[in-house]
């Protein structure tokens, strides 16, 4: 697999999840407690903002979809879990005090069984349609666009993440009949039915009060609730990833062309 260091630079430069406004504690992942808070809300429901909030409140490190960028082994394990393979959730989640976003939200039932004392947060948007509009205009290409998959294929971390998300889409089509607004509504209904206790239905617009009350922690003073990962930011990130992917393909083609020319010249020489 061709390694492109530009990808690492992009992710590091674009990491807005820990900016100066929302400084969080530095965590020793190896000594972190087991999961205490689990987010069951789908992506594009304020999960990035919730991640920052949870870490600010002391429930970090918090697992998020962005972890898969740098931890390809997790992409493999989550993909196998979608196929029904047995998963050691305690081992997989070792080092995290909380977890939100996809893929965590997809496995809320399994995590509920593995961590029965954990509290669950279902992040929501104003409507099914608003969720789907945000989904298809931001992270949708990661899940459905074949040209995105081709672009990132040479970059192992992104390829494995994309394999997971494409398999997830197939699961949604199997379970819900489509990838559309009703995915959001049916998923939320199932979460509410399954998690009868210790569940907070939360819109990030509500701010600190309901979240802190649910987690039984004080409200941070003079600190606005995080507001990150808007649609424009996600579009820029995905555009950058596409660009790096196609650049990688171009480099591969150049290397192959130079190699062929060198071999041809060597053959002519002898």
TrEMBL record:
It comes from the Eukaryota. InterPro entries: P-loop_NTPase, Sulfotransfer_4. The keyword Transmembrane helix applies. The chain crosses the membrane at residues 243-267. Keywords: Membrane, Transmembrane, Transmembrane helix. SUPFAM superfamilies: P-loop containing nucleoside triphosphate hydrolases. This is Sulfotransferase. It comes from Rotaria magnacalcarata.
